[in-house]
Structures are given as C-alpha cells and as structure tokens.
Specification:
This protein has 173 residues and is α+β, with helices and mostly antiparallel strands. It is 32% helix and 16% strand.
C-alpha cells in the first residue's frame, strides 16, 4: 500500500474529475509492467490518502485475483469513510485499449456488480495516455476477446456503467 503524500487532489464528483485524478496520480513516462491501481473516495469525492498497486498482473484476469481485488476494495470501504472505489489498469506500450484490456475492465465491473462494490468507471494508463474505458467498447469486449472469454465476461452492456455516480452513503449497490 502506498500513501499519496503529494498535494491534495481535487474532489472527484464526475467521470471527468476521475480522469483528471488518475492523470495526476499516474504522471508521464509510461510503465514497465502491467499493474492494477486502486483508490477510494468518500461521499464528498475526496480521495483517501491511499493508493494500492498490484504489480505484474497477468494478460487476462483470473477468478482468484478478481475475487481478491473485490475483497480489498470492499474491506477498505467497510472499514473507512470511503463510499466508492476506482481501479486503473496500467501497462507498457502506447495506444488505445486492446482486447485484453477490455476483458480486464469488463471483468472488474461485472465482479463489482455481483459483489455489491461501488466501483467507478475503470481506466487504462499507457505510455502516452490515460483514458476511461468507453461503455460502447465494454459492451463489445466479449466479441473482441474471441475464444479467450472468461466466465466474468458473460454480462450485459448495463454493467459498463457500474458506479458511474457514486452512492451517497456506505450502502452497497
């Protein structure tokens, strides 16, 4: 776990605010490995002073890792003033999301919905940009992934919007 001790970041109330938050945290210069980054927000949109990276995640998500991520997200929400969480996938290289990146995003969002974790839109950071996964792209991720589909990917387009607006209290979705 890492505490971000830099300057206070602006409250995150919109999807645009969340994109700016991730850009501020990720900086410039790219990434040497594939990682997941987790952050939490209180009911006013203030981020908790905690950033949890998981380095060297696989090309495609596995059930145990996803379950563990959801457990960590939920435990921090349950034991703190946090009311929602956000996750970003970072990876080496440049460019827009690929099929595996989309599978990661869909899998995280579907697991959050199933387990009642208030998760904001998932983001991707590469050497040249930080971006949110677009709902339309997420809706078609299963087709893009072809035969590599995971059980978590068997969901509908509505799961692309999990947590787009954080809940007003600690109640789970």
């Amino acid at each position: 776990m890492t505490e971000h001790g830099g300057p206070a970041l602006a409250p995150v109330r919109t999807d645009g605010d969340l994109l700016g938050h991730w850009r501020a945290l990720m900086g410039h210069g790219g990434f040497a490995r594939r990682s997941l980054w987790m952050v939490w927000f209180d009911g006013h949109g203030a981020s908790l002073p905690l950033v949890v990276p998981i380095d060297d995640v696989p090309e495609l998500p596995d059930d145990q890792l996803i379950d563990n991520v959801m457990r960590v997200l939920a435990e921090i929400i349950d034991e703190s003033e946090a009311t929602s969480a956000a996750v970003l996938l970072s990876r080496p290289g440049a460019g827009r999301e690929g099929a595996n990146d989309l599978v990661w995003a869909r899998t995280l969002l579907a697991a959050a919905r199933r387990q009642g974790v208030p998760l904001r839109p998932v983001h991707l950071a590469t050497a040249d940009q930080v971006q949110a996964f677009a709902p339309d792209d997420l809706a078609h991720a299963a087709m893009a992934a072809g035969s590599r589909r995971r059980p978590y990917v068997e969901i509908g387009a509505e799961d692309a919007l999990v947590g787009a607006v954080p809940p007003p209290s600690k109640q789970r979705l």
